[in-house]
Amino acid sequence: MVTKNSKNYKPTFPVEDIHKQFKKMDKNVPGAVAVFIAAAEEYLAAEIVEKAAVLCRQRERERERREKELVGLAWVKAHVGIPDNDLADHFAKLASVEVERMDIPYPYSFVKFALTKKLLEDWQIYYGAYDTASGNRNRGSITILPTTILLRENDPFSHS
Q1: Which of 37, 57, 70, 89 is the most exposed place for a label (fewest CB within 10 A)?
Q2: Rounded Cα gap, residues 43 and 49, in angstroms
Q3: 9 pLDDT above the threshold of 60
Q4: How far apart are CA 126 and CA 80, in angstroms?
Q5: Which pLDDT tens digit goes with each residue over 82-118?
Q6: Residue 44 · residue 14 · CB < 8 Å
Q7: What are phi and psi of 135, to 5 degrees?
Q8: What pTM, to 2 d.p., does this model score?
């Protein structure tokens, strides 16, 4: 008996199985069965090849998509010897390993909005107080003309 684990096992295609089944079905009209089998073999073989090609293309696209999205994360001790940074790294690692569920009586969107607002306010204070070697940071400004003047001067229908 030949099984999948034996040395003599050869995988067969569905076409070969169909061929064997048709041969067993009708021995009285071998010509008709042979013609039908030949046509079925060509059709099924073409269909199998096409399905295999489609699957191969799909697998290739999936593999390429996965490779583009691969991100590796690793814990790197970049601040060894700096006490404040070591402490920050220690607590960051603890936070990533030992997750505590916090019950906040506000919706997630409100917490996200409040934190974003606070971060922007802090950044604005830091940015406004920042001094460079050449002095305070100057922000450029553009004078904006009133829209009525812009419309009058750039009006394509005026013939002056």
Answers
A1: 70
A2: 10
A3: no
A4: 27
A5: 666 777 777 777 777 776 666 778 888 888 899 899 9
A6: yes
A7: 120, -165
A8: 0.25
